[in-house]
Design a protein that fits this description.
The chain is built from 14 helices and nine strands. The chain is an alpha+beta fold. Helix 5 (about 60-70) packs antiparallel against helix 6. It is rod-shaped, with a radius of gyration of 47 Å. Bound molecules: 3,4-dihydroxyphenylalanine.
Length: about 375
């Protein structure tokens, strides 16, 4: 059918011939008009409409070809036939323009409907991170002690033997070196086993009064449910005139009340560290049972939380501080241990695996 139509209205060289043959070409014009009408009726979108426009009104279009064919029409018929072609062109232009407007409007509406945003749909939530429990406890410790006038000093993680051991009154042949299983990097350098090394570095630079807090990572070849080869410590050091163990306990009481419970108490037990004399082990009353005795504190009512003591005279001397004029106390605690006690975590690995299901429980 379409092929036939094409044949009828083919107004190329052949068409012009036909025009002249018939004298008026009127039937050809009618055929073009009819065909264009049908083509317009079949248009569904702006693309098809554009094709129709080109097919009839374009430079190689059928109406344009009719106009070109005028030359071959007898002179007396030309004006009236020319007018008919122009009328057809104008009519077609008008129809196409009108159709174009409605087609475009419909297309726009369809697009708007399709791309509509439903503002009542629930939004996509961004997952919010939380501070790691070790970071939380570290920050809390810093808050507590900075509130008491301490300054934060962070020492290096790679230390030499002198700062990590020797200056802390632990010479090479000292049996206390065996207390900490050390990762040596070379004969001289090692991964620090304790933040106590920072005491020496600070006292070499700063003279009393000193109130220092030194948080950081430490390393020991140790690995079980409560020990990890890398963990965090918080060191504290106070050096001034007439500093006593009572001052230490007063500050630690304040720490325990803020960190664990308003009724927490501390207890000092004799112990040994090469860099303190006397040395103590500090227990905090068990927050889980209030000191009555439970499985957490193994029935004792107390939980060991840190090591401390009065700074050994030799350590002060090693740093050029006169032990007859000044005295000091120091303490060191494991941050993971405090976090485990505070949050009831029974395996230190949970703090290093970084499983989000575990970590996301620590929110404010
Ligand atoms: N450095 C010790 C350790 O890692 C902890 C310690 C004990 C630190 C007594 C101190 C202290 O400052 O006075 O086991």
């Amino acid at each position: 059918m379409e092929e036939k139509e094409k044949d009828q209205t083919n107004v190329g060289a052949e068409g012009r011939e036909e025009n002249s043959k018939r004298g008026s070409g009127a039937s050809l014009l009618e055929a073009v008009r009819e065909e264009a009408k049908r083509a317009l009726a079949a248009v569904r979108d702006s693309r098809a409409l554009y094709e129709v426009r080109m097919k009839y009104l374009g430079r190689a279009g059928k109406v344009t070809a009719l106009l070109k064919g005028l030359r071959e029409i007898p002179a007396e018929e030309r004006p009236s036939f020319g007018k008919r072609i122009n009328d057809l062109r104008e009519a077609l232009e008008g129809e196409i323009d009108a159709l174009e407007e409605s087609v475009r409007r419909r297309e726009l509406e369809e697009r708007l409907a399709q791309e509509k945003t439903d503002v009542t749909m629930p939004g996509k939530r961004r997952k919010q991170g939380t501070l790691h429990p070790v970071t939380r406890v570290r920050n809390q410790l810093i808050d507590i002690f900075v509130g008491m006038g301490f300054e934060v000093y962070e020492g290096p993680e790679i230390e030499n033997e002198y700062y990590n051991f020797t200056a802390l009154n632990t010479p090479a042949d000292h049996p206390a070196r065996d207390m900490q299983d050390t990762f040596y990097l070379t004969d001289e350098f090692l991964l620090r086993t304790q933040t106590s090394a920072g005491q020496i570095r600070l006292m070499e630079k700063k003279k009393p009064p000193i109130k220092m807090l030194s948080p950081g990572r430490v390393f020991r070849s140790d690995d079980d449910a409560t020990h990890s080869p890398m963990f965090h410590q918080m060191e504290g050091l106070v050096v001034d005139r007439e500093v006593s163990l009572c001052d230490l306990q007063g500050m630690l009481d304040e720490f325990a009340r803020t960190m664990f419970s308003g009724t927490s108490k501390t207890r000092l037990r004799p112990s040994y560290f090469p860099f303190t004399e006397p040395s103590v082990e500090v227990d905090v009353s068990c927050a889980a049972c209030g000191g009555k005795g439970c499985s957490l504190c193994k029935g004792t009512g107390w939980i060991e939380v840190l090591g401390a003591g009065m700074v050994n005279r030799r350590v002060l001397e090693n740093c050029g501080i006169d032990p007859d004029e000044y005295s000091g106390f120091a303490f060191g605690m494991g941050i993971e241990r405090i976090a485990m006690l505070k949050y009831g975590v029974n395996n230190i690995k949970l703090l290093t695996e970084n499983d989000v299901r575990f970590l996301s429980q620590f929110r404010d």
